């Protein structure tokens, strides 16, 4: 008699694909793409679970309140029902939040960092309460939590207080940006060589201090250099640092030397990276630091903060500075542009660093974590 083959169904919460722009959307899209491109085992099936209603948009108090309610209803009511109806064995949620009640399936939830604990003032009070009331209990009861770095795992363990083996580390990878331009950007690239930073204008990005350091750098620069800050405002008004960034530009009289592009779609990021002189990453806290790998994929010299996970990701492919020391940042900018020996050493190391990270590898590791959670032979 032939042994019966049981198909294991892995469901993926796809709500974030409807969100206009966020790191969790990019993470989800890349994982789905990698899973779909990976040859599936005959006894594993991937199911995409999508909301049947569009995500509420708008920035008014009412719109944000309704969006929170809709999010709660999706995560705690609609999503688990759909996962059950689709006979899921495991449900993957890539945005911190998973269902608290799991009828017939297990949760795998991704925590990208420990910012909810570390910077509570950066979040809307209701959003923070939803995290405490629902995300934390669901994560503790999940089959596994996935963190993007060993540093992030350490921080999450500290606050969540779960067994160490409850959290698995799965590294992210650089995104391959489209090389096809679909429209004209609403900004002009600098006509002189420029330093680049890409990311949401959040407080932990430390951009006002970078601007101060850049102002000092320009005083002794050998030729004109520009600073290009690519990224839109934070979704949270409590975390948004745009006003402080603009104030720093004005204070140091850098209106003609620093450009804020706002949000830029991926069709234009390819050209922005290709034409950059170097990349600067001054964040004082990150869960992974994906822009380091993106900059490496364009063979850019990189200067990054020397704390949290950034050396874990960048390794010997970048130079590092204390993000709380303005003079160190200034000195690093000089090294980044004028120290040819240090630049060559970093660039020579980047290929070996990049080989350690791929979305295909990440997708396979996540699929294996799902199967292991079911005590399923790999």
Secondary-structure map with pairings?
Elements lengths: L7 E6 L9 H15 L6 E6 L11 H25 L4 E4 L12 E5 L4 H4 L6 H17 L2 E4 L2 H11 L6 E3 L24 E5 L8 H12 L7 E5 L11 H10 L6 E5 L3 H10 L2 E4 L8 H8 L4 E4 L4 H5 L4 E3 L4 H13 L1 H15 L4 H15 L5
Parallel strand pairs: 1-2, 1-3, 3-4, 4-5, 5-6, 7-8, 7-10, 8-9, 10-11, 11-12
Textual characterization of the structure:
This protein is an alpha/beta fold and 378 residues long. It has helices spanning 23-37, 61-85, 115-118, 125-141, 150-160, 207-218, 242-251, 266-275, 290-297, 310-314, 326-338, 340-354, 359-373; strands spanning 8-13, 44-49, 90-93, 106-110, 144-147, 167-169, 194-198, 226-230, 258-262, 278-281, 302-305, 319-321. The chain folds into two domains: 8-173 and 358-373, Rossmann fold; 194-354, Rossmann fold (3-Layer(aba) Sandwich), CATH 3.40.50.
Radius of gyration: 22 Å
* Main pleated sheet: 6 strands, parallel
Give the percentage of residues in beta strands. 5-15%
**Under the CATH scheme, which architecture of the largest domain would be assigned?**
3-Layer(aba) Sandwich
Q: In CATH, what is the class of the largest domain? A: Alpha Beta
Task: Provide the domain count.
Answer: 2
- The H/E string reads EHEHEEHHEHEEHEHEHEHEHEHHH
Report the helical percentage. Answer: 40-55%
